[in-house]
Amino acid sequence: MKITKDLYQGSLALLTDFYQLTMAYAYWKSGKAEETAVFNLFFRKNPFHGGYTLAAGLDYVIDYCRNFAFDERDLGYLREMKNKDGSPTFETAFLEYLQNMKFSCDIDAVEEGTVVFPHSPIIKVTGPLLQCQLLETPLLNIINFQTLIATKASRIVFAAKGDAVLEFGLRRAQGIDGALAASRASYIGGCSATSNVMAGKLFDIPVSGTHAHSWIMAFSTEIAAFEAYAAAFPDKCVFLVDTYDTVNGIKNAIQVGKQLRETGNEMEGVRIDSGDLAYFSNVARKMLDEAGFPNAKVVASNDLDEHIIASLKSQEATIDTWGIGTKLVTAYDQPALGAVYKLAAIKSEDGQWEPKIKISQQTIKINIPGNQQVIRYSKHDKVVADMICLEGEDIDKETFVIIDPVDPTKRKKIFTKGMDQEILLKPIFRNGEMIYKIPDIHTIRERAKTNLSHFDKAHKRLVNPHTYPVGLEESLYQLRTDLVFKMKNYNGE
C-alpha cells in the first residue's frame, strides 16, 4: 500500500503547520539544522476515560517517511511566499537545501496493535534537528487519529463479548481521509469487516453490507423487496426489517427465508436499525427459532457504542452482530487523542546526549528528558508493568523501582527473576532506510487481540478501569527532577 501514490499522486511534505517550516528555516539560518536530536511522540491520558490505548498508524508513518521529499511544486509554492515588506519569506539557498535534503532519520516505534500507556513514547525520531522538526505535524496527525479509533474499536469489541462487530461509518466519517483511516484502524481494533469498499480494496479488509431502507421503499411491498433481494443474493441475505413495522418485517423475512430454503439456500439473518433493540431482538430471536431458523443472526445498528452495547447485554438482548457507525469512526465522545511530540535530547559536540526538558506548572505537562526506551515486563503470559528508561540502561538487574511520571508517591518494585521482558520501541528506519518488515493488516489485528489478552479485564473495563503500572526507572526520574530544579533556578523561580 502506498498512501501518497494511491491517494494523492505526489508529495505530502507540505502537510504540516507553517511554524514547522519557519522553525526549519531558523534552524538552517542559525547553523543548527544538522545537529542530532531525538524527539518523542507520546500522549498524556488514555482516551475515553479508559485504562489503555491501542497503537495504530505506523504503516502510514512508514509510507510518509519513505516518500518524504519536497518536489518542485512544493518549492514553487514556498518560493512565492512573502514577508510584510515584500521580501521572500524563505531564501533561495534554503529552498535549495530542502530540494536536496534526503530523509536520514532513525525511527523507533511501538508496533501497531500494541497496547500503550500515557507518557511512554509511541514513536522516537532521531536525526538532523531540522528533519525531526518537520516530521512533527504529519506524525501527530497520523498517530493521533488512528490510535484513537483503534482504541475505540477495541472497547466496542470488548463490550460485544465475542459477537461480531461491523464498522459501518463511511457516510458519517470526517471526510475521505478520515473514513479510510478509520476503517483501517477499526479493523486493527477488532472489527470483523467494514462497509467501506475503498478501504477493503486499499487495505485488504473484509467488506460487508446488504441493503438500506430505500431498497424496501423502492418496491410496492416489503415482501416484494425481500424476494427481489433474495433473487439477487440468495446466499447472503440479511433483511432489514424495521422500514414499516418490525414484527411484520420479521414475518416477511421468515417467509422469504423459507422460499430460499426451497432453492437450497439459507437466510443469514435480519437487521434491526431502530426502536427498542433489546425488546425487538428478543422478539426476532423467538420468531426465528420457532420458524426453524435457529442459525439466523440478529444484527443491530442505530448509533451504537460500547456503553449502549454493554447496556443491551445487561438487558439480555439476543443480538449476534453489531453494526457500528458514527460513534466509532468519529470517536464520538472524545474528538482527539491529544498526543504530543517533544524534543527530548540533543547530541553535544563530544557525542553525548544532552537531555532537554519542558517544565510546567502542571506536572502532567513536564516531559521526560533523554534518549528513551520502554521495557514491558510480564510473567506467565500476563503483563506486570512498563518501565521507561534511558537507552543503554542495564535492563538485566534483578530489581527495579519504577516511579509514576505524574505522582512520585506511586512506586512499584519489579523483581525481574522469572519475568519476560520486551523492548517496545522497535527499529523501523536507520539513516533514512527502512529496516522493518511491515506485517499485513491481519497480522496487526491478531497482534492487537493477543496484546489485549495479556491484560487483566480490570484494565479493560469501560468504567473506572484499574490503572496499569507505568513508571520511570529511578535514575531517569532523578535526572528529570534535577533538570526541573535546574531550569526553575535558571529562570529565577
From TrEMBL:
Transiently phosphorylated on a His residue during the reaction cycle. Phosphorylation strongly increases the affinity for substrates and increases the rate of nicotinate D-ribonucleotide production. Dephosphorylation regenerates the low-affinity form of the enzyme, leading to product release. CDD domains: NAPRTase_A (cd01570). One of its GO terms (cellular component) is cytosol. Pathway: Cofactor biosynthesis; NAD(+) biosynthesis; nicotinate D-ribonucleotide from nicotinate: step 1/1. Residues 167-365 form the Nicotinate/nicotinamide phosphoribosyltransferase domain. Residues 14-144 form the Nicotinate phosphoribosyltransferase N-terminal domain. Pfam families: NAPRTase, NAPRTase_C, NAPRTase_N. Its EC number is 6.3.4.21. It catalyses: 5-phospho-alpha-D-ribose 1-diphosphate + nicotinate + ATP + H2O = nicotinate beta-D-ribonucleotide + ADP + phosphate + diphosphate. Keywords: Glycosyltransferase, Ligase, Phosphoprotein, Pyridine nucleotide biosynthesis, Transferase. One of its GO terms (molecular function) is nicotinate phosphoribosyltransferase activity. One of its GO terms (biological process) is NAD+ biosynthetic process via the salvage pathway. NCBIfam families: NAPRTase_put (TIGR01513), PRK09243.1-2 (NF006695), PRK12484.1 (NF009131). Belongs to the NAPRTase family. Catalyzes the first step in the biosynthesis of NAD from nicotinic acid, the ATP-dependent synthesis of beta-nicotinate D-ribonucleotide from nicotinate and 5-phospho-D-ribose 1-phosphate. PANTHER family: NICOTINATE PHOSPHORIBOSYLTRANSFERASE. This is Nicotinate phosphoribosyltransferase. It comes from Rhodonellum psychrophilum GCM71 = DSM 17998.
